[in-house]
Give the backbone structure.
Amino acid sequence: MNETLTRRNFVAGAALAGAGVAAAASLAGATAAQAQDALTAEGNPAWLGEAPEIAEADITETLETEVLICGFNTGGVPCALSCAQNGSKTLVIERDAEETCQKMREDIGAMNSKLQLASFDEFPEFKIEEKDAVEDIVRYANGFCNYDLIKMWAQRSGEVIDWVTDTIEASGKFVMEFEGGVGNQDGEGRDRAYATGHSPQKTEAAGDDDSYTKVMRQAAIDAGAEVRWSCPMVKLEQDEAGRVTGAIAQDTTDGHYVRINASKGVVLATGGYSTNTEMMCALQPEIVDGRILCTSGSTDDGSGIKAGMWLGARKDPIGTSILFNRCCVTPDEVAGNGVVGRWFWFGEQPFLKVNLNGERFCNESGPYDYMLHSTWSQPYHTYCDIWDSDAKAKAEQLNEVGCCRLFPFDNGAKNNIPFDVVWNNMNAKLIEDGYIQQADTIEELAEKLNIPAENLVATVEKYNGYCDEGTDPDYYKEAYRLTKLDTPPFYGVRTGSWHLATFDGLLINTHMQVLDQDNNPIEGLYAIGDCSGGFFCVSYPNLFTGLACGRTTTEAYILGQEFAN
């Protein structure tokens, strides 16, 4: 099972120490009002604070480079590779030690890669019109985005995938697979899904310790990039004209400060702020209120965003997160208030879902952000997933896409985690530990979940009737996703939001230059990935498989070329 789990960084990262939970659990003691109202003496929000003052006498080491990249994960690694391949002297500083640094995301969203284009003759439904894709992403952001950034991803991401594919396949240890599937059966689904996911898969030559992250990092180093581990960026430096000339970092192995001069520029690839208590309470209090904490391995602390804002950089105006409906609690717990739950990989499957009153409240077929936002208006931001022992056949009928899929894709590509692993390993352990409840009757299941038995029985009877009729007049769920609860034993679990990452960052242009309050570039300063903004707003369009990782990798690749010009 562990081998399968390494395919996604948020799953692989969970095998690390629970740094994300430890940091985020302190949120329970803070209030949003306190975080929003507090100011520094200079008038900055308390969560932003002021740039630290570092005495010159404490800076005992100076390094020279052309490009300085802060962070060596999903954005920093491909950026370092691209910069080095395009002739720039490149230095990467990474906050974490090499042995504890979180892994890169592995599901890379792209359009018109060679792998995707090759599938169109057999699977014409995989074709994507650029206009449709761009407009859907823009619509998802309600216009709070940089249209040109999204177009850049749509037009260049296929080229980027081809580059990554060549890189990993040169190692002989990995191949790239295109995840071909759009989820619909016999007509349109509730939401359009886009076949954009590309994932690395191990070959027989790969060893147990080999990973996509390891191969990509080594490729960057082999291309000439240098890496300094355990060396977080502390603050950026500017010359008298306002150009960013480099940064001051701290070598945490012994505490000394390092000045790094970067003649071409500094790239922030530091991620978002999901584990920063003050920032989360101030900028996304609704997320803090309703989420279930779970070991994710994330250590994103907002350091890059803050460093840019200390220089006058402009940030996205609205807090934005990716929420995941694959986290559960016990029958006597509810989401929020710092509760720590467990992974529940089965959660995205669109089986019957009811609130804590035992009643349906939305179309269960919606993407996970829709499900979790719908849950906000329900009691305690918590709901129950309900299914039966015929779940394997019914889950295959549900025909999910992307990382939600439990069966091979239409084009034969491997799925994220096989159904049997989820059912026999993950779910079995959750039953053993008192999370998933099992019962011979719906009444008994309701009692075990601490929800009204009469209501749940009535809901199931009504829902089963809709399944027989092939229509859902209450919430308009697609006919092929109406699956009866008719095969005991029955199963249920309390479910809620798992917070993966934040996406509101520093505004950038299509050259990845960070913008000031007047929308002018801050010369010498660049940002990519989750610490950059202008792409997502409020939520994440998860029906574009791998879009977050795809835009990050695309920005990183293009920026390396920009520095060569």
